[in-house]
Design goal:
Elements lengths: L9 E10 L5 H12 L2 E6 L5 E7 L1 H13 L5 E10 L7 E3 L2
Length: about 100
């Protein structure tokens, strides 16, 4: 009997708009990504939005995307866009400045 192959990693680039800066969105994303076991990064954008890249199993990345629609308690998320990309094998999750 063969062992099932591990799930193929996926990568999503997510852009979030609304009241998402100054509300702890990046730090909450870091915490959530650590709990989900995904790698990637998050940063503020000059237009007031937040951009993040998530890599991991499809299930974990989709959980992060669902979380982005809510964000931390004080955020007001207006829109979330998702682009699927080729995974790069990022080693950890970090906040980019």
């Amino acid at each position: 009997m063969q062992n099932p192959s591990p799930p193929q990693p996926v990568r999503a680039r997510v852009t979030v708009s609304g009241r998402v800066q100054g509300v702890g969105y990046r730090f909450s994303t870091l915490d959530e990504a650590s709990q989900q076991g995904v790698t990637g990064w998050v940063r503020n954008l000059s237009d007031g939005g937040v951009e993040a890249v998530f890599e991991g199993t499809r299930e974990d990345v989709e959980a992060m995307i669902r979380w982005c629609h809510r964000g931390p308690r004080s955020a007001i998320v207006k829109n979330v866009t998702v682009e699927w990309e080729e995974p790069e094998g990022l080693p950890k999750f970090e906040i980019k400045r």
